[in-house]
Amino acid sequence: MAVTREIARLDNSEVKLTFTYKNDDLREEYKKIVGDFAKNLQIKGFRKGKVPVSILENKLGKALREDALNAIIGNTVQDALKSEDFPADAVPLAYSEPVVEGEPELDLSGDLVFSVKYDVMPQFKLDKFEGLEIEVETAEVAEEDINRELEEIRERNAIVMDKDEGAPSEKGDVVTVNYAEISENGEVISGMEREDFTFILGGGHNIYKFDDEITGMKKDETREIRKTYPEDFEDKDLAGQTKKIRVKLTALKKRELPEDDELAQDVNEKFKNIGDLKQNIREQLEKELEVALKDLKIKKLFDKIIELNPISIPESMINAEIISIIRRMFAGYSVSDEELWKLVKSSALNEKYRESAVRDACEILIMDKLKSDFNVDISDNDIEEMYVDISKDTGLPVEDIKKEYAQEDKREYFNNEIKHKKTLALLLGKNTIKKGKTVNFLDIFQKNSRI
After folding, report:
1. Of 76, 119, 90, 65, which is closest to residue 320 (Cα–Cα)?
2. Rounded to whole angstroms, how far apart are CA atoms 339 and 349?
3. Looking at the predicted structure, is the pLDDT value of residue 151 above 70?
4. Rounded distance, CA 76 to CA 94, Å?
5. In terms of residue numbers, what domain contains 45?
6. Could you tell me which residues come within 8 angstroms of residue 295 by beta carbon, excluding any fewer than 6 positions away?
7. 74 with 102: CB under 8 angstroms?
8. Strands (E) located in 93-187
9. Which residues sit opposite 113 in a β-bridge?
10. d(CA 80, CA 114)
11. What is the 8-class DSSP label of residue 174?
12. Which of 57, 162, 317, 418 is found 20 to 30 A from 93 (Cα to Cα)?
């Protein structure tokens, strides 16, 4: 078959693949495709599969040619991509579908020339990844960090009970309200009402931020509130607006926070008093801090490597990473890929997470290249160490973890994690990590944030 192809490398790791279909072969392919169509069509006056091509062309005309052209283009592109001599570095990314450029037409009097565009795996040089020097902040677990965690535990272990009949609502109470935005004449504005909304009074966890206005209300009481929002209010739909809201308090509960030693026992019977619980909190926070500091070292080192080794990331890869970020945000929720894609196409979200997506894509590409360049081996000792590490993280017995990863579908992931760990260790060893200034415990987690 006399089909020639030409590969052109474009910016941002995009490829333009141009095909030229010689006329004789084009006619032959067209005849074959139309013949296949005819075999499956039923036209009045002809038995199925016995419709002459000339009749088919007269009846279907342009539509037939368009279908034939689409089939020819699709088959030609797929055959090329699957051919043994097609360059591996010109194969489309899994999430980049080849798109036909322009509007080619099927003219059986001449050759057919058409092009498709798609994204490929970025090609880049990794020259500067060792002998670098970075400075990483450090931190320690302070008493205030332990107390903050302790208060969060106390809040989670609070006992909630109904308040006495006729008691006023106070900050810290659990309130349930029905509310609605209303017009000046008191009519409910459709779509702006909500029933059985529960929140902790004083936390500001409601759209209209009417905590202060409903403090002091009693169960079954109704209030109409007029509230003016500043021009810089966080909700742009309310900023600079004056709203009239009707609120009915339908349930009122108070929270009783457990005392120190009682709290310790509620958390775990092994804690004899609050001192035991605080010591446990310290140990957990120190483990979290150790992991966070290591992650921060890696993040800062990769930031430096990415800066020194620019990579042109294709648009489809950026979108895939944005989807990955949004999917992590919605973890635990049932969100379809179609819904995720709609969110990615939202200009606000695309702009918000684009920088993080580009950076994440660069780190993945660099890490994959380092794994290949370092060519790390996996020893039996590496495998045993990984089992122990997973056991420490999960609390599961080593034997259970061995059974889990003995499964064939999980073995590749397990081995890749070992290679990842060893590659990071080699990379850190080739660079200098200096101890920076001491910051607060929470600052480390903020600096380590990817979004």
Report:
1. 119
2. 13
3. yes
4. 19
5. 3-119
6. 448
7. no
8. 99-100, 112-119, 133-138, 159-162, 174-182
9. 20
10. 13
11. E
12. 418
Supply the mean pLDDT for the chain: 89
What pLDDT, on a 0 to 100 scale, did the predictor assign at position 60?
60
One domain for residues 234 and 295: no
Alpha helices in 204-310 (DSSP H): 211-214, 260-267, 274-308
Q: 178-182, 336-340, 394-398: which has the minimum mean pLDDT?
A: 336-340
The tally of CA atoms less than 13 A away on the side-chain side of residue 315 is 11
Helix 260-267 with 274-308: angle, nearest 10 deg: 70
CA-nearest of 340, 324, 309 to 451 is 324
- Considering only CA atoms, which of 174, 263, 186, 252 is closest in space to residue 223? 186
Same-domain check for residues 249 and 301: no
Burial of 394 (0-12, 13-18, 19+ CB in 10 A): exposed
| Distance from C-alpha of 248 to C-alpha of 253, rounded to nearest angstrom | 15
User: What are the pLDDT digits (tens) for 407-433?
Assistant: 888 888 899 999 999 999 999 999 999
Domain annotation covers residue 138 = no
DSSP annotation of 123: P
CB 329 within 8 A of CB 311: no
Report yes or no: 277 and 283 within 8 Å, Cβ to Cβ: no
Specify the DSSP class assigned to residue 7: E
d(CA 324, CA 412): 21
CATH number of the structural domain spanning residue 327: 1.10.3120.10
Answer yes or no: do 243 and 355 share one domain.
no
361-370 confidence digits (pLDDT tens): 999 999 999 9
pTM of the model: 0.74
Q: Are residues 68 and 11 in the same domain?
A: yes
Q: How many domains does the chain have?
A: 3
Q: Tell me: the pLDDT tens digits for 109-139?
A: 899 999 999 999 999 999 999 999 999 999 9
